[in-house]
Amino acid sequence: MLIQLNIKNFALIEEMTIDFSEGFNILSGETGAGKSIMIDAIDFVLGGKFSKSLIRTGKERTYVEALFTIENDSIKKILEELDIEYDDIVIVSRESHQNGKNLIKINGKSFITSQLRKLGCKLLDIHGQHQNADLLQRATHIVQLDDFIGESIYDIIKKFTFEKEKLLEVQDKIKRIEGNEDREKLLDYLKFQIEDIEKAKLKENEEEDLKEEYNILANAEKINNALLSAHNLLNNNEEFTVINSLSKVLHELSSIENHFEKIKSNKESIEGAFYTLEECSREIRDMAEEIVFDNDALEKVNSRIYEINQYKKKYAPSIPEILEYHEKIKREYDEIINSEKIIKELKEKELIIINKMKEISLKLHEIRSKKAKELQENILSELKFVGLEKSRMEIRVEIKDNFNERGFDEVTFFISTNPGEPLMPLEKVLSGGELSRIMLALKCVFAEKDKIPTLIFDEIDTGISGAVAQRVGEKMYQLSNTHQIICITHLPQIAVLSDYHYFVMKKVNNNKTFTEIKVLLKEEKEIEISKMLSGDEVTEATLNNVREMIKLSDLKKIEIKINK
Prior knowledge:
With 564 residues, this protein is an alpha/beta fold. Among the domains are: 194 residues, P-loop containing nucleotide triphosphate hydrolases (Rossmann fold); 152 residues, no CATH class. The protein is built from 19 helices and 15 strands. The strands form 3 sheets. The chain has a 6-stranded antiparallel β-sheet with strand order 2-1-4-5-6-7, with helices on one face. α2 runs antiparallel to α3, α9 runs antiparallel to α11 and α15 packs across α16. The chain is elongated and about 145 Å long.
């Protein structure tokens, strides 16, 4: 719900703050005072088109800020999608400059116009001669009918969507296989790559093994010398080597072990070390004999490493990835070779899915056709109540050759508002007043399901008066029990039903024009409605008449609430 609007330097408005309330809010005032400017400001702050003419003359920028309470989950979902933190209120602001600079913020975070519109359409709906474009689009008619039907049809639509996604996936595969005009060239190319990789006989851990072998061969002389030196230090039959020294130690300890029991454990430890060192000495000697510098072997290893690096440049950064790529292109090669068989299988699958989609769509069509009659009767009833009693309406549900997001159906609202005129698609209704009343009728039918919390009606009273105007007012008041309604009107029959009445006035000060607004108190409301009824001359008789109208409207409001 819109709770506050702050406007600066917007058209005739220099600076204005308006607090709105729930229920039925009326805006009235003299022609040209700026009532529609406020609607334009609301449209602007929610992502509407911007023109430099909207900036107040002599100013560099315009700024509009709107505060909304968060009413439903659809608004919360958009806020979460846009990663906006929120509590109970969302603050939307838009600032535009003469140089074209545009600054949009939602709860203090910057966004672009398309993101603002995505949120704006969930917060508020404006209905007037220029803002009913969505209603005119045939694509929305199926949505409105489905919303009227409710969850039961959406469960079936989910099944259709599941099959549709399967179909698109299958058709994409067929397109990729059939659309390959250079089939032979691709086969030759894939075959060359497959054979090239297989020729290399790559092994998964080969690179690590080669690096280790290269390291040994490149440092063979150094390794050999170190091993021989180590062996000589351990055991080379000379008197002072580690093993000879340990042998002498063991000899000395053996000579006393029968006389000195405590030495036995030490002798055993040294004996273990002696045999371990002897084994190590033999292994070091064997390794020294094996490692010799071999230039041919080094060249061979070098050549293999170079070859592998070339394959890594051609195919993938590592041997495992090259082998994985090899498997992938083998599968692709096999698919193309067997494409006729695969396409045949895919087309059989495609036909099965299409038949399933048609079966589901037929269920959707039957439900829609049945419910369309009920919906058109409900809408006609509402249209007659708001003064379009000669209207005829037909909701046509036609099965088309091509499917859309909701099946194979196309839904079109046809209407005739005058006797003798043929039924025409809703987009042919050009009268702003008629269109607003049609939207009001639709909104009344969909009131329980409609998730948009705030509805603004402009030009709703075009071409109506008297009893019809009273009925339009009653319908809007009825709608205000489930939505916040903001309505611009010139008609007293509508104004008397308001919960809050705002008066818009134009003032001239120092040759500058200003638009101001105020909430009317009880007596002020009576005077304003009297002027709407009989002009600037307000008599006691007119005031009494208005008071009686307000009294009767209060009774009517109670009746509407009771019958809600």
